[in-house]
């Protein structure tokens, strides 16, 4: 599991379309699909049901999506704090 896979899951969850999600992430549809499939294999659960009408969360996906969103929010907060710390460094070496 990595942040990239979680970001793909988040985007697919938000847009409910593999085509639109992959376009938004500037990757191929097959790359996104394969990455999510690898994550699902690692987890042992399908996160999404795919159909011609779109892509929706499975029951397992509904249980896990809050954690995925929280992890990505925490990552963004961490990176923001690191940037703030770098800009606040004073003095010379």
Automatic annotation (TrEMBL):
Keywords: DNA-binding, Transcription, Transcription regulation. Residues 1-58 form the HTH lysR-type domain. The keyword Transcription applies. GO terms for molecular function: DNA binding; DNA-binding transcription factor activity. Pfam families: HTH_1 (PF00126). SUPFAM superfamilies: Winged helix' DNA-binding domain. Belongs to the LysR transcriptional regulatory family. This is Transcriptional regulator. The gene is gltC_2.
